[in-house]
Amino acid sequence: MPTVLLIRHGLTAATGKILSGRTPGLHLDERGIHQAEALRERLRPVPLAAFVVSPLERCRETASLVLGDRAIELLDDERLSEVDYGEWTGREIKALAHERLWGVVQVHPSAAQFPGGEALRATQARAVDAVRDWNARLGPDATWALCSHGDVIKAVLADALGLHLDQFQRIHVDPCSLSVVRYTALRPLVLRVNDTGDLADLLPPRTSRRRAHRGVPARPATEPPTGASAGTSTVRAADPTTGPASDPA
Predict the structure, then answer these.
(1) Alpha-carbon distance 213 to 228, whole Å?
(2) Which residues contact 75 (CB under 8 A, 6 or more apart)?
(3) Which of 11, 56, 46, 4 is closest to 180 using CA atoms?
(4) Is residue 247 part of a domain?
(5) Is residue 249 in a domain?
(6) pLDDT tens figures, 188-204
(7) pTM
(8) Does 243 reside within a domain?
(9) Rg of the chain's alpha carbons, rounded to an integer?
(10) Helix/strand/coil (H, E, C) string of 153-193?
């Protein structure tokens, strides 16, 4: 039963503002470095058989920091690279939200084909193929990590959960979050989703004095668009070092 640790790269200066896509030369900022260092300490007790990464700098930097002094070579896999957003690459997200295709990406992503780029269904196919391939290479007892991008990880999680790709926008994956999937002979078991080690998102939302005085509830925070999440939501299940809480398979 190989266990896969899916790690999104840490924050960059463009996260949440620009649809960076496969833009080269984009590095972690100070926040992203701190995120990766914190994750390194959380994962220190977990033995890793391999660490596979998207070739983009922000993923390689995150993975290098998470590895620390472990004697493990980073293994590039193009199938884990960011979505090819084509002509959308490098554009501001707030401007893209006005495009007709944006609604398709949010509601019917299996039909989304980025102009001059790839379809999200192709992204999911290549990413899931990569995970399954590495599971076979590394063996049934391996615990291994990958570092990739938000939409790529969401697509893999949707597949593991048995969800149609059109539901993958219901999954939230923050920068430098940890998600974990264990692949059994009969089904994948999703052990963690978007675990950042931070419970701040579970606190009650702030209510302004004016709205509280008027008895009006605070407005919920707007959910970041695809490829731009930067919050701290966490859903936990079992620890990858001890196995799932239950395995009916």
Answers:
(1) 34
(2) 50, 51, 52, 53
(3) 4
(4) no
(5) no
(6) 999 999 999 988 878 88
(7) 0.83
(8) no
(9) 18
(10) HHHHHHHHHCCCHHHHHHCCCCCCCEEEEEECCCCEEEEEE
